[in-house]
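Appendix B. One record, verbatim.
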Amino acid sequence: MSSLPAVVVAGLGRCGTSLMMQMLYAGGVPCVGEWPAFESSASMFGSFDPNAFAALRGQAIKLLGPAELPIGDMPKHIVIWLDREPHEQAKSQLKMVSLMFSGVATNRRSIRSMVAGIRADRPSNMAAVGAKSRCPTLLMSFERLLTQPTEAAETIAAFLQWHGYEQLNVAAMRRQIRRRSPTCYPGMMEIDLLDTPAPIGHERPSPGRPEAI
């Protein structure tokens, strides 16, 4: 078993966790799940087995809304927590929901309600993975990734290297970031990603499946 800590990439929906996992994978960190979203039923949809965490040392795993998962005790791990400007995150969440369910309204009222939920849920979800309390934590914003890609990649690499992850390819991490406005993307960036080749060792997900990013 690796002596390296597991890397828990966590946040609330539509905050950039998929992009972070893509960066870690490109940089040389083994990641749980498949490119581009690095999601699995075990870590995303309530069938999470706490005992499975024992085998995750030296790997990165993405946990969205971790307060909803039966995580229990986790092994030695470090946390990269992703935040996003709440109004843009709310609009992106509503955009995703509207693709999955018809009749979902996207207006000022629904955005305000979603923003309130994001702000209320953040503390409990951070606590679920030990962010800023019992575990070393790097706070990273979606906006920082997009507007300061080089500095962000270097900061992430320095955090990982401090905890034993050596020989990271920082340039490859940086190249995963597409320059664009941090405002809510008008289309689906995850579909756009399917037009680019998957990294070696990761097959593309099934066409048409919405992936959170």
